[in-house]
Amino acid sequence: MASSMASSPSSLLLPLGSGSGKNLFFNHIRSQGLIVRCSSCNTRKHSNGLNLVNRRDVMGLLFGVPSILLNSPSADGAGLPPEEKPKLCDDACEKELENVPMVTTESGLQYKDIKVGEGPSPPVGFQVAANYVAMVPSGQIFDSSLEKGLPYIFRVGSGQVIKGLDEGILSMKVGGKRRLYIPGPLAFPKGLTSAPGRPRVAPSSPVVFDVSLEYIPGLGDE
What we know:
Helix content: 10-25%
Distance between the termini: 20 Å
Low-confidence stretches: 1-9, 16-80
Number of strands: 11
Structural class: alpha+beta
Order of helices and strands: EEEEHHHHEEEEHEHEE
Strand content: 25-35%
Shape: globular
Oligomer: single chain
């Protein structure tokens, strides 16, 4: 879910099918007589003035795989054992979590605080910068801001990310870390397809997010 620190909301964090097509623009690329329409392709200017689409984008369009999945760090790191991927909660943290009480909200969201922050909580509608590691219940990682090398910036409480993540971060404080156990109705209604190095997320199935609230742009407390 902008500057180099704030990319547009990742489709992995948005409920699939929720995006509006009103503001989409299309790049028209001619390749061997084929006109390809793409709203998210990376293009480069060729000397003859044509816009050339990134090779991975063409592959994704031909085979029905979004380019964000082909270009994702998870795909680049295919074959790496889960323990070699960066985490917000290491083995020692996992053991400590066993003794942390579970909190259950009215929506069905559950969470455990890995670390309680000392900063402010984000007001609804404010941007937040957060790191996250998203997993299926078995512990397999399907998305992570740590692999991208930048915190994810989005407007909290505005529907820019899945409902469980929105709710879970709203009650956190800056500097805090939390494990969110997100039930299916608050996760991905249409699921996520599998990709190299990334497990499939079934429609409306539970997912687990480890999140850390890094800072709140605009509050002056970074």
